[in-house]
Design brief:
Elements (H helix, E strand, L loop, with lengths): L4 H10 L7 E4 L2 H11 L3 E5 L12 E4 L2 H11 L3 E2 L2 E2 L3 E5 L5 E10 L4 E7 L6 H7 L4 E6 L7 H11 L6 H17 L2 E11 L5 E3 L3 E4 L11 H6 L4 H8 L3 E4 L4 E5 L2 H13 L6 E4 L6 H12 L6 E8 L4 H14 L6 E7 L2 H10 L5 E3 L3 H14 L5
Parallel strand pairs: 14-16, 16-17, 17-18
Antiparallel strand pairs: 1-6, 2-3, 2-6, 4-5, 7-8, 7-10, 8-9, 10-11, 10-12, 13-15
Helix pairs in contact: 2-3, 5-6, 8-10, 10-11, 11-12
The structure holds guanosine-5'-diphosphate and manganese (II) ion (MN).
């Protein structure tokens, strides 16, 4: 789960990472009230889950109530690369001498945490990585050992931060690592980390992505769920307890097992199609789960065909086929459906599907055939009725 900047900063603050004082606003009047409370000059910042807000005009300095009013009106409702601004963060403006970059993330390949620091902050870090990879200092941290202050200093020195920023940066890195580990994050990123002309170092931006698997030990994350931006499909899937991720293609996907669901996406791509979603219905595929899955896919206006890909293991193919048939009696599906069943009792399953075959419901013996047919149907079907 990704946090908004203001939530990320509040998260940072819990671990003692210095951030500027500020407040959230959802209206122009609230923005002015927050600015009056915080004290001028302030920065008016769009709260969207995408970077590059500065370039898009979503971050403006304001030194008076009138300026806050102007900028807040312009930024609220603004579209920043597909994200509509519904909330602002108004914070005390900082004077900036230098902008740096600092982050911790998980390097799954190395099975370690990865700390990155650069003296080239405030710009897109991917761009720095492309143009000047040497400008990013990297350090793998063994999760058992943790990050020592000595490690943090090495990282800061290797990155070549200005001398007067080093103590502050080491302190922040130590706390940022703590925030990353104890805060159960997958990513914590400060870009820019700034040095002010009077020698203070603090976080001017915050990107925090929390590890959903750790939610059980963080009841306080409930607050973040409340402001989470989900599309209609994802909201419905969450309410039904399905492992669903919305994508932008036209073939709706239902598979049992995350690995099979991912392979299905790949195969659809391979034959020239694009998936509308990832959906793993798990081990058991009874009528209830199948009906829920179909209902979620049904709410997606981009779906032109549905590909159900099931490998019978403990769940037998005939059970799955019966589940599909019963689910179709309950949910009115408008798109054509292609089914591939293999594994335990696949023959029995196919026989059941065959008995219910129609123009809308077809079965194919292999994953590749099924994907081909689903893509062909998706391309042939115009605007859905
Ligand atoms: P992003 O564009 O979405 O990454 O948003 P940031 O919060 O990182 O802000 C982008 C840029 O705006 C920063 O790199 C700064 O140059 C500038 N900026 C943000 N806050 C302040 C501030 O308090 N004072 C000044 N002078 N510039 C700021
Ligand atoms: Mn930034």
């Amino acid at each position: 789960m990704d946090l908004f900047e203001y939530q990320g900063k509040q998260y940072f603050a819990r671990f003692g990472i210095p951030v500027s004082p500020g407040g959230v606003a959802e209206t122009v009047d609230e923005a002015v009230a927050q600015a009056e409370r915080v004290g001028y000059p302030v920065v008016v910042k769009a709260q969207v889950l995408i970077g590059g807000r500065g370039k898009a005009g979503g971050i403006k300095l304001a030194d008076s109530a009138a300026a806050v009013r102007t900028h807040a009106s312009a930024i609220l409702g603004m579209d920043i690369r597909g994200h509509t601004v519904q909330r602002l963060w108004i914070e005390r403006a900082s004077d900036i001498a230098h902008e740096y970059y600092a982050s911790f993330t998980l390097d799954r390949g190395a099975r370690k945490h990865l700390g990155m620091v650069s003296a080239r902050g405030g710009v897109d870090i991917e761009q720095v990585a492309d143009e000047d990879p040497g400008a990013i200092a990297r350090l793998h941290v063994d999760p058992v050992d943790g990050l020592s202050p000595v490690n943090a200093r090495e990282l800061v020195e290797q990155a070549g931060l200005d001398l007067e920023a080093r103590d502050g940066a080491v302190d922040i890195l130590t706390k940022l690592y703590q925030c990353f580990v104890e805060g159960d994050a997958d990513l914590v990123e400060i870009n820019p980390l700034v040095l002010t002309p009077d020698g203070r170092v603090h976080a001017l931006d915050a990107k925090v992505s929390l590890d959903n698997n750790a939610e059980f030990r963080h009841p306080e994350w409930q607050d973040y769920r409340a402001t989470e931006v989900l599309d209609e499909r994802e909201r419905l899937a969450r309410s039904k307890g399905l492992q669903y991720i919305g994508l932008t293609g036209s073939v709706g996907i239902i598979a049992n097992g995350a690995g099979l669901a991912m392979s299905t996406l790949d195969v659809v791509n391979q034959v020239g199609g694009s998936a509308a979603n990832f959906l793993d219905i798990g081990g058991g595929a009874d009528a209830n789960v199948m009906a829920n899955a179909l209902e979620v896919i049904n709410t997606d206006p981009n779906v032109r065909s549905i590909l159900i890909n099931i490998f019978g293991g403990i769940t037998r193919g005939d059970e799955v086929a019966n589940g599909i048939v019963r689910a179709l009696e309950r949910v009115h599906i408008t798109s054509p459906i292609v089914i591939r069943i293999d594994g335990t009792n696949a023959e029995e399953g196919r026989a059941i599907l065959k008995a219910h075959a129609s123009e809308q419901l077809t079965s194919q013996p292999t994953m590749l055939d099924a994907a081909r047919m689903a893509v062909q149907l998706a391309n042939a079907t115009g605007v859905r009725a």
